[in-house]
TrEMBL record:
The lineage of its organism: Bacteria, Pseudomonadati, Pseudomonadota, Gammaproteobacteria, Lysobacterales. It comes from Rhodanobacter thiooxydans. This is Epoxyqueuosine reductase. The gene is queG. Cob(II)alamin binds at R75, D153, L177, L188, S235, C260, D261. One of its GO terms (biological process) is tRNA queuosine(34) biosynthetic process. GO terms for cellular component: cytoplasm. Catalyzes the conversion of epoxyqueuosine (oQ) to queuosine (Q), which is a hypermodified base found in the wobble positions of tRNA(Asp), tRNA(Asn), tRNA(His) and tRNA(Tyr). Its main location: cytoplasm. HAMAP family: QueG (MF_00916). InterPro entries: 4Fe4S_Fe-S-bd, 4Fe4S_Fe_S_CS, QueG, QueG_DUF1730. It catalyses: epoxyqueuosine(34) in tRNA + AH2 = queuosine(34) in tRNA + A + H2O. Pathway: tRNA modification; tRNA-queuosine biosynthesis.
Length: 365
């Protein structure tokens, strides 16, 4: 566990034992001042979640995401990941900025490429980690040297369960965290700490009998309440999967080329979704509704340049072309789509060639 000190904040400073209740209130206020939408505090007990995770792994629902099983119990036992951890400060930040093209309109335009709303602008990882570091520095100003570690989707952390236990929301039937005042369009981050801060109350669930997320999933990836088969999930297929997309899942993918938001789009709680205040989350290169033919024409250099600092980089150029090829196969038959696909028919990548051939067959018949 990192211990915070430097020339400006020496570990030899002496501080009176803090009033942890007051400190907890200050931490939440500082988090808001630093640009987070909310912050709350949980303990480290994730026993039930550990059992749920193990059942999910045993069922093989993680697909090629071997990292989900690689770290043993460190994911569900924070003190094993970072010895000394007593509390977890969970934070969230809203990510859909004003002016973003309407998601349903883009999904309804089969000639456009749909990119998950979280990935349209700057990658959130560094931004949130920087703010968590600043939060740690503010805490140091009160308590002196203390142990902590900041995480933003960067280690074996069960972030949704920790955020639920802190009261930031409940895990919906689609396995996404829902906040009753802000819906589900937000990122999460954590500050593991050895400070014995008072705990916040866990959030209660409010999905009721609603099953819209299960019913709308294009590939039936949500097997039942709280049961997601990642191998069928379009987010997995377009980002995590590095090989060939199963043929039976290509047509249901429609024009979704990076991620999928359908289960969130139909969630009634997202009528309370908050607009992002971070300008760096604004869509870049008109990716909130760009045409497939235009995106497919990007060279590798263009892809790398235009996606610098963005989450889209995760799929890689080969994956980018693979995904768009599938969407072009699902697009209305047109000479423009066929011409675009033919331009990649002899691509060096066998993965790209395979998906282009599939798409051309659909376009021509």
């Amino acid at each position: 566990m990192q211990r915070i000190y430097n020339d400006r904040m020496s570990s030899t400073e002496t501080h009176a034992t803090p009033d942890y209740a007051t400190l907890a209130r200050d931490i939440k206020r500082w988090a808001i001042e630093l640009g987070f939408a909310d912050a709350a505090i949980s303990g480290t007990d994730l026993g039930e979640d550990e059992q749920h995770l193990q059942r999910w792994l045993d069922g093989g629902h993680h697909g090629e995401m071997e990292y989900m099983a690689r770290h043993g119990s460190k994911r569900t036992r924070p003190a094993e990941l970072e010895p000394g951890t007593q509390r977890v400060i969970s934070v969230r930040i809203d990510y859909i900025p004003p002016g973003t093209a309407n998601a349903w309109d883009v999904l309804g335009d089969a000639e456009a490429g749909y990119v998950s709303r979280y990935a349209l602008g700057r990658d959130y990882h560094k931004l949130m980690r920087g703010r968590l570091q600043k939060l740690a520095e503010r805490i140091h100003g009160v308590v002196g040297d203390f142990g902590y570690r900041a995480y933003v989707d960067s280690a074996p952390v069960l972030e949704k369960a920790l955020a639920r236990n802190a009261g930031l929301g409940w895990i919906g039937k689609h396995t996404v965290l829902i906040n009753r005042h802000a819906g589900s369009y937000f990122f999460l981050g954590e500050l593991y700490t050895d400070l014995p801060l008072p705990l916040d109350e866990p959030a209660s669930a409010h999905c009721g009998t609603c099953t819209r997320c299960i019913e709308v999933c294009p590939t039936q990836a949500i097997l039942g309440p709280y049961r997601l088969d990642a191998k069928r999930c379009i987010s997995y297929l377009t980002i995590e999967l590095k090989g060939s997309i199963p043929e039976e899942l290509r047509t249901p993918m429609g024009n979704r080329i990076f991620g999928c938001d359908d289960c969130q789009l139909v969630c009634p709680w997202n009528k309370f979704a908050q607009v992002a205040t971070e300008p760096d989350f604004a869509p870049r290169h008109s990716l909130d509704g760009a045409k497939l033919v235009e995106l497919f024409a990007w060279s590798e250099d263009e892809f790398l340049k235009r996606t610098e600092g963005m989450a889209i980089r995760r799929t890689g150029y080969e994956g980018w072309l693979r995904n768009i090829a599938v969407a072009l196969g699902n697009a209305p038959k047109s000479a423009a789509a066929i011409e675009a696909l033919e331009s990649r028919a002899d691509h060096p990548s066998a993965i790209v060639r395979e998906h282009v051939a599939w798409a051309l067959a659909k376009q021509r018949h």
